[in-house]
Design a protein that fits this description.
The protein is α+β, with helices and mostly antiparallel strands. 19% of the residues lie in helices and 47% in strands. The protein has 1 helix and 12 strands; from the N terminus they run H-E-E-E-E-E-E-E-E-E-E-E-E. Strand 2 and strand 3 form a beta hairpin. The radius of gyration is 22 Å and the shape is globular. The N and C termini lie far apart (66 Å).
Length: 150
């Protein structure tokens, strides 16, 4: 049988230990998230959209367009972007959302394939059949949230 003074101390120590573990776990998770560059797209429309990205691929010294990913209505899509193998990306990033009614983009042209999954190196310089306008953003390590509204 525990002494009536020892039991409350053990309860308090248990609570502190659990709280400390949660806090340390949250800090570790936060550091892991900061070591990655993730683009999170929120489709805030009633329609399915297709998402295309352009980033600077340092390994190939190339603006590279990649896509397209299907994002259901009112849902999120996450994509990790790398600068060089496992190094998180930081810098200019271009985004385009499209479907039959939505064609967002207003700044710079890059090559795309509007119907298939693709990765196009030097998409800002090569000649191609389909080019599209993109919106420029700046992203950094961590979660970069972007919302597509109607």
């Amino acid at each position: 049988m525990l002494n009536q003074h020892v039991a409350p101390v053990l309860i308090i120590l248990s609570i502190l230990l659990l709280t400390t573990r949660c806090t340390i776990g949250e800090e570790v998770q936060s550091e892991i998230e900061k070591s990655k560059t993730t683009v999170q797209i929120r489709n805030n429309t009633k329609d399915t959209i297709y998402q295309i990205f352009v980033y600077y691929d340092q390994e190939n010294s190339s603006w590279t367009s990649i896509g397209h990913w299907k994002i259901a209505p009112y849902s999120n899509f996450n994509k990790e972007i790398f600068a060089d193998q496992d190094k998180p990306y930081k810098g200019r990033f271009y985004l385009k959302a499209m479907n039959s009614a939505l064609n967002r983009g207003d700044l710079k042209y890059f090559c795309i394939d509007p119907t298939n999954t693709f990765e196009i190196l030097n998409s800002d310089r090569i000649k191609c059949i389909d080019k599209a306008k993109f919106i420029r953003y700046y992203i950094k390590p961590g979660i970069n949230k972007m919302i597509i509204n109607p």
